[in-house]
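Incident log, support desk, overnight shift.

02:14 A customer reports that sequence design results differ from what the structure should imply. Their input is reproduced verbatim below. On-call engineer (initials T.W.) acknowledged and began investigating.
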């Protein structure tokens, strides 16, 4: 059974979003109780203190240090998952490889929020749909830690994590 942890991207100072995140965490915990996989629920205290955690980049180091998990699943506070199906999907991947998987969004035309990085049809941009959730292997997180360093500045993290996907 895949060993995975979860990071719920949230706004902990906003009561509405904190409640959504707490509900999601409890839903995952309840699903866990039913199927009992090898899973680690990464608690808020593990990542909420990381400066700029919402940009994802500063979390790579934390993830790389999590020796007890092979996968980390990123969810937004309003995302919902079927844990059993997720674990089935993870079995198709090799956690010793660089894996970044999720639902891809595309910008067919350049947009100002993405800094006009796309200059034509030949360079359609794909980036992860955070609301659908995505997962990465801790093997990839280790490499991204070295590549990114202390990246904490971000304008559009959903787009800026794109080179790693």
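02:41 Re-run completed on a clean worker. Output:
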């Amino acid at each position: 059974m895949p060993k995975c942890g979860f990071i719920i991207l949230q706004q902990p100072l906003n009561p509405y979003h904190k409640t959504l995140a707490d509900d999601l965490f409890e839903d995952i915990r309840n699903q866990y109780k039913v199927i009992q996989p090898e899973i680690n629920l990464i608690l808020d205290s593990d990542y909420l203190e990381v400066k700029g955690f919402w940009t994802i980049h500063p979390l790579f180091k934390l993830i790389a240090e999590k020796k007890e998990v092979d996968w980390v699943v990123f969810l937004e506070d309003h995302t919902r998952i079927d844990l059993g199906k997720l674990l089935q999907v993870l079995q198709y991947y090799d956690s010793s490889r660089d894996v970044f998987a999720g639902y891809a969004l595309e910008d067919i035309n350049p947009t100002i929020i993405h800094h006009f990085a796309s200059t034509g049809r030949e360079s359609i941009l794909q980036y992860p749909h955070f609301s659908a959730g995505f997962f990465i292997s801790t093997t990839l997180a280790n490499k991204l830690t070295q590549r990114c360093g202390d990246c904490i500045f971000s304008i559009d993290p959903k787009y800026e994590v794109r080179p790693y996907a």
